[in-house]
Amino acid sequence: MPSPRRNHRAGVEDRWWKTIKNEDGSEQKVHAAGWTLDETGKDVPPSRKRWRARWVDDQGREVSRAFDRKADALAEIQRVTAEVHTGTYVTPSAGRATVEAMYQQWIGAQAHIKASTRATRENAWKVHVRDVWAGTPVADIQTSMVRTWVADMVVTGAKPATVENALGVLRMVLNLALEDRRIARNPTDGVKAPRREHKRRGYLTHNQVEQLAREVSGGAEVVRFLAYTGLRWGEMAALRVQDFDMLRRRVNVLQAVAEVKGTLVWSTAKNHERRSVPFPRYLAPELSALMAGKGREQLVFTSTEGEVLRVSTYRPRVFAKAVARLQENVVERRAKEEQDDGQPVTPEFPMVTPHDLRHTAASLAVSAGANVKAVQTMLGHKSAALTLDTYADLFPDDLEAVAEALDMAALAARTAI
Questions:
Q1: CA distance 117 to 97
Q2: 341 to each of 102, 336, 338, 344, 349, how far by Cα in Å?
Q3: Rounded to an integer, what distance in angstroms lies between the CA atom of residue 170 and that of residue 165?
Q4: Is 278 strand, coil or helix?
């Protein structure tokens, strides 16, 4: 049978003196235990702090803390009482749990995240968080310490994305400690990772897409499909025959496949959202050829062995080599056509990766007149704001048109008066 909870109470105790009642009912202060005599015979109080603040926490446990001054002990009682009533009280012993212990509790509850996301977070913990914070009690972490840690990572050459992932793991672990009321506030609040630098994206033109498709040694359909649908590699690799509606020229994106530590992991599409993406009419014949003789459950895009098409294999063995050949061809052609003036010739064909074909799809769609909402739907972004933030350089700002409209309205008003 569990012991009954103690009622909330608090008080300050004198650890040097205690009050006793005499037989006549009067009170008398006498030495508490711990007093000694010096060489002159004078009483010497105990070395321990005189005043002890004692209270019962919100879990019914008695807690105490010693102070040199009574005023400090009374102030502590007032603070604790206020926190208990407002629900912000944190038991001192609860904050002694280490970051390592909280991480193990936190990562064990991450069953809802994708395996690729989990692998990224585990790697950030092992490489950047564990050695610095594992043995530190969560209550001992201060915001200034976190800022110093972030600065140290930057100084040692960690990229903004790496710092962001590491700080994110520590923040989520301490959020769990906050939820469990082991700390009163998260010390990572207000600490920011360095801003990411936007890399120049390799947008391909229609001609360059076709050049790349013809240059790759197998898998031309992959290049064209990614460049005109904007699907992520994992979404494309997971497509099955039944996901295509050839009459409406639509592909239904339902799931994705990722390679995590060499193992293929199947999951829902990013953000767990299904979407229907159109593809150009001219892709229909080669897509139909890929599906010929396959059952509804079979994959459309596969390796030469009929297995899942892995970007870790396709990119270095096929894609990167094709891009390099195209760049070399441009250099050689320009070197023949132009006089050598001693300056290096810059390749006209951009350096691109398979993921850049997604950016190319956005660029080609915008140049064809697609609005931001259409591009958002095609790419599977969570919001139009994300699409604008990602591809702000592609959408025209129309500022000249706004200025012209204001000019005409102002002139009309001036003429009418």
A1: 26
A2: 64, 12, 9, 9, 21
A3: 9
A4: strand
Chain centre to alpha carbon of residue 389 = 17
How far is the C-alpha of 161 from the C-alpha of 166, rounded, in Å?
9
Q: Are 241 and 298 in contact (CB under 8 A)?
A: yes
Task: Please say whether the beta carbons of 204 and 350 come within 8 A.
Answer: yes
209 phi/psi in degrees, rounded to 5: -60, -45
Task: Return all residues near 328 (Cβ < 8 A) that are at least 6 apart.
Answer: 347
Separation between Cα atoms, residue 353 and residue 315, nearest integer Å = 7
327's tokens: 């760049």
pLDDT (average), residues 357-371: 89
**Model pLDDT for residues 170-219, shown as the tens digit of each residue:** 999 999 999 888 888 899 999 999 987 766 778 899 999 999 999 998 78
Give the span between the Cα atoms of 154 and 163, in whole angstroms.
Answer: 7
Residue 257 phi, psi (nearest 5): -130, 135
Which among 219, 220, 222, 224 has a CA at the least distance from the CA of 204?
A: 224
